[in-house]
Structure formats: structure tokens, C-alpha cells
Amino acid sequence: MRVYVSADMEGVTGLVGADDVQMGGRDYERGRVMMTQDVNAAVRGALAGGAGEVVVNDTHSTMRNLLVEDLHPAASLVRGKPKPMGMVQDLDASFDAVVCVGYHARAGSLGVLSHSYMGHEIEDMWLDETRAMGEIGFSYATATAIGVPVVALSGCDVACEEVKEWDARVRTAPVKYARDRFAARLRPAQEARAAIEEATAEGVRDAASRTRKEPDMTEHALSVRWQSASVAQQLEGVPGVTRTDDRTVLVRGRLPGLFRLFGVFQQVAASLTGQAPYC
């Protein structure tokens, strides 16, 4: 079995503030250690569940967070940016399962370090105009469209609840319990990593027994509401993109193509705003 691990940072064990997850923050180097240990727990779980190969994608910020020398030796690593497919770079139908480590709740949710991709620049996102989503939902929808099931996720309790709204079969490992956006009751680190390992192993075993789905050829609609009307106005210049109001854009297409196009949206927004996240 081939297992793909998409690793973010905000949902990692013990991390609750911007200084924990932003390069240059006073606790960022410690955060890198914690992130690497959570990922290693997922790799151990994948191997215990029957994986013969594990690929890890470092997806947070600069995408150069994981400590390469401390990463589990059974895992290969996709590192650095830009990546055309961002959080699902190198995921294709040859994989049997996706595991999401350190994921966080979407913008507007009272989860730890909650946001959607760009700090507070993205106010909300929808798939097919009615289903609110953030990074969890978009990664889930894209993986599912490729034909690979998401089988496990770790993060705060709000993030774990969010993925269950997409698929109740996903095994979850809540590593902290949100008390506010920058506060949580932390699960003991050893216990949290044991939970990640167990959820991953169970999810990978479950994937082995599932009937694989064919790639989804359905056309979907992606809507994004920005804080800045300037971003929406500039994106309207992209073929196929329309504005539904001053700050919201809509585009239709198939996944994973929409996911890649959204990466272009982010580059346009970053060039216009330059706002720091978590303000």
C-alpha cells in the first residue's frame, strides 16, 4: 500500500499561537520539533496498518518546516514551494490512502489557529455554492475526486469534528481541545502521538478493505469570499471567473483542476495584500 501524508502545522500537538508556527516566532523551532514528531507518529501508524511506502508533503507556510534529519527513515518528503498543487502535491491515484496531520478548522470556526489558507484574507469558501469549507474540506474533496480516500486526521477537536462532516468514516486524533482561537487544553504529548499512530493504523487498514472509487469527473463550483474587494476585482480577469458580489468570486470546473487554480488565486491575493496572518 502507498500512503500519502499531508502535514500542516497549526493542528500539531502543543501549538496554540502564531509564535509557535511562524518562521521567526520565538517558539517556531520548538514547533518544528513537535510537527516532526506528530508526522513520525502518523508514519509509524501507516506502516503498522500495512503501508509499504509513505510519502509526506510539508504543507505549512514556507513548506520547509519538518526537520529532515529527524523524519522517520521510511518516509520520503515533498518539501519547499511553490508547489502547483500545494497541500496535495504529488498525490495521484496510485496512492491507497491519505492521512492529514496537524490540520486546523476553517475560517470563522472557533478552532485553534483557525483560518483558510491566508490568515484573515479569506473570509469563507464554498464548494458547489452551499457547502462551506476550508483546508480540510478542499483537501478531502480533491483527494476523493482523484479516487483516494482520506482515512485519518489529527488536529484540535474542532478540526476533527469538521472532517467528520465530510466523511464520518475518517479516523480522528484530537491532540488539543479549543478554548479559543489561541488557547486550548492540551492532550499530553505522548498520549496525543499514540492517538495519531492508532488512528492512522486503523484508517490505513480500513482503506485496504475498501472498494476503490473511480476519479470524479463531475463539474463543481468553487466560491471564495475575500476580505478585499481588490482581490475579487483582479481575479475577475482570470478566464471563467465571475464576481457574485464585490468580494466574492466563483469559478466552475473539475477537481483537482479547481484546487490548482485556487493556488493561482492565492498568488494574486498575496501580491495585492501582504497582510500577516492571525491578526
Give the % helix.
25-40%
Strand and helix order: EHHEEEEEHEHEEHEHEEH
Radius of gyration: 18 Å
* Strand-residue proportion: 25-35%
Poorly predicted sequence stretches spanning 5 or more consecutive residues: none
The major beta sheet can be summarized as: 7 strands, mixed
Shape descriptor reads globular
Based on the coordinates given, report the CATH architecture of one domain.
3-Layer(aba) Sandwich
Would you identify the CATH H-level superfamily of one domain? Answer: Dipeptide transport protein
Task: Give the distance, in angstroms, between the N- and C-terminal Cα atoms.
Answer: 42 Å
Mean pLDDT value:
95
Total number of beta strands: 12
What is CATH's topology name of one domain? Rossmann fold
**So how many helices?**
7
Secondary structure category: alpha/beta
CATH top-level class of one domain:
Alpha Beta
Major beta sheet, strand line-up:
3-2-1-4-7-8-9
Keywords: Metal-binding, Zinc
Pfam family, one: Peptidase_M55
InterPro entries: DppA_N, Peptidase_M55, Peptidase_M55_sf
Protein name: Peptidase M55
Describe the structure.
- This is Peptidase M55.
- Keywords: Metal-binding, Zinc.
- This protein is an alpha/beta fold and 279 residues long.
- The chain has a domain of 190 residues: Dipeptide transport protein (Rossmann fold), CATH 3.40.50.10780.
- 33% of the residues lie in helices and 25% in strands.
- The strands form two sheets. It has a seven-stranded mixed sheet with strand order 3-2-1-4-7-8-9, sandwiched between helices.
- Strand 5 and strand 6 form a beta hairpin.
- The protein is globular and about 50 Å long.
- It starts with a strand and ends in a 6-residue tail after the last helix.
- The model has no long low-confidence stretch (mean pLDDT 95).
